[in-house]
TrEMBL record:
InterPro entries: L-rhamnose_isomerase, Xyl_isomerase-like_sf. Keywords: Isomerase, Manganese, Metal-binding. One of its GO terms (molecular function) is metal ion binding. The keyword Isomerase applies. This is Sugar isomerase. Gene3D superfamilies: Divalent-metal-dependent TIM barrel enzymes (3.20.20.150).
Amino acid sequence: MRIDENRLEDANKKSIARHNEHFDFLAGIMTNDGHDINAILQKLQDFQVAIPSWALGAGGTRFGRFGFQGEPANLEQKIDDIGILHKLTQTAGAVSLHIPWDVPSDYDAIKDLAKSHDIVFDAVNSNTFQDQKNAKESYKYGSLSNTNSAVREQAIAHNVDVIKIGDRLGSKSLTVWLADGTNFPGQGNFQKALSHTEDSLKEIYKTLPNDWKLFIEYKPYEPNFYSTVIQDWGTSFMLANACGDKAYTLVDLGHHLPNTNIEQIVSTLMLKGKLGGFHFNDSKYGDDDLTVGSVKPYALFLIFNALVYGMENNPQNPYPAWMIDASHNVKDPLEDLIQSLEAIQEAYAKALLVDQKALTLAQQNHDVVKCQEILQDAYRTDVRPLLEKARLNRNGAINPIETYRTLKIRENLIKERGADSVASGL
Ligand code: AOS
Ligand code: ZN
Ligand code: ZN
């Protein structure tokens, strides 16, 4: 299913007067404040976030999974779903594939389909946290860190395969997230696990094409509850340095112990040129994978402030690969993703409004109050008309959620795919 251009235009016509009024008001204030509106709009329009192939169906917890009707049953339908998201929001122009959940059967057909939706293939994700059918070795006690070399070799070979699959699609990066760790004190040897992981990553790194990057994701706990081998950014950073120039740390917003200062981690990594990938989500307690911006929008803004500073001042850091890493237990996954994309753009726009010159001056003068005023002045600005304008400029929807509902997209998907279709892979 595809969104009909005419119906999208009709929906926009209904909102255009209200949009113009709000935009003109905001544009007036911003121009008076010395902002270059067109430059900010261009940045918003260029900002594209990858949607992971596993986020299009309903997620679940270990207590159960409640399906959502009309879920995409195969990779083609998943890409169609991202096409819908991208058409409406104009900010979801990439897909991040999970292997082996979403191995293409016909590469040319998948590439053509993605292209027809204006979607590119971003980082590919390997999976050594589940045992695959017919696999010789089990990952029950770890993959790249396993004490058994046969298991490590199988996990390395899988990652090498994932690179090959990604290469055929035009991907340029591999994300490695390991579930490796222990559940109980004494179960494993920390030093051996880390050494094995480093050696295994180096083997994978050796096979990385020259124009590729390796992203190493960290996470403090879950699924293991006593220790995780790559538990924090420092461990990831150390491993990335051990691998080489093409290896980077990946920050997932949900992968920190409560109250960790993520904006400071981002700043440190960008200063060192090692922030490669970024997973967006939100949480209250742990790796909750909730809708971006739904719980801690100010924290997200502060993180974006660090990201914007890094993008503007750290040429040593590559442009990060952005991805939404969320799961959907009670919402329509597409509506949830639209909300996440909106929250990301909102935080980005607000960070672009921070008066960096004034902030630097206030910092030099140790004017602590002024520093806070500058940040909060940007944060308190209602930037939604800017986001609407950015979408309109790219022929997207002024109000994506409203349009999604007016065009009855979920109803149409259910008609097309059936009420009990279940997303493949999970
Ligand atoms: C797991 O907690 C991580 O966030 C991963 O990035 C991701 O969700 C997983 O690799 C899915 O394949
Ligand atoms: Zn993640
Ligand atoms: Zn996670």
